[in-house]
Amino acid sequence: MGRDNQIVLLFDGDCAFCQMCVNVGRKSLAYMPGVRAWQFADLGALGLTRGEAAASVQLVGPNGLHASGARAIAVMLSLQPNPGWRTAGRIMLVPPVSWVAETGYRLVSRYRHRLPGAPGTTAV
Fold first, then answer.
1. What CA–CA distance (Å, rounded) separates 75 from 42?
2. Are 37 and 10 in contact (CB under 8 A)?
């Protein structure tokens, strides 16, 4: 089984902004894990609850890999073949940058319905 089939990124399939971010990731990143809307994933098989999946993006993989929110994005970036993305991901995992990243993630998550890609907004 290839790496794409082992690591899964779950996102909110009902969120247009979230879908836009996934689309940008697919176009911009050399490596993208398997991507699924959490609403259509077997959460139990992935070791997640509905509440966890609804709360934030989730990255799940082999050997106990589980990260959520900004940490999930940072881990995904740290898996990139491009050294710039890898470095950015690794920096995002280290405090105090990790604290700022998580605060930013929570802020974006709270107001995502007002961001580009959401109904009634203009995409950038």
1. 22
2. yes
* C-alpha to C-alpha distance for 93 and 99, rounded to whole angstroms: 9
pLDDT in tens, 13-64: 998 889 999 999 999 999 999 999 999 999 999 999 999 999 999 999 998 8
Locate the DSSP E strands across the chain.
8-11, 34-37, 58-60, 66-68
How is residue 109 written in tokens? 């998550």
Phi and psi at 31, nearest 5°, equal -115, 125
Say if residue 111 is exposed, middle or buried (CB neighbours under 10 Å; 0-12, 13-18, 19+): exposed
* Ranges assigned E (strand) in 2-122: 8-11, 34-37, 58-60, 66-68
Residue 88: how many other CB atoms lie within 10 Å? 16
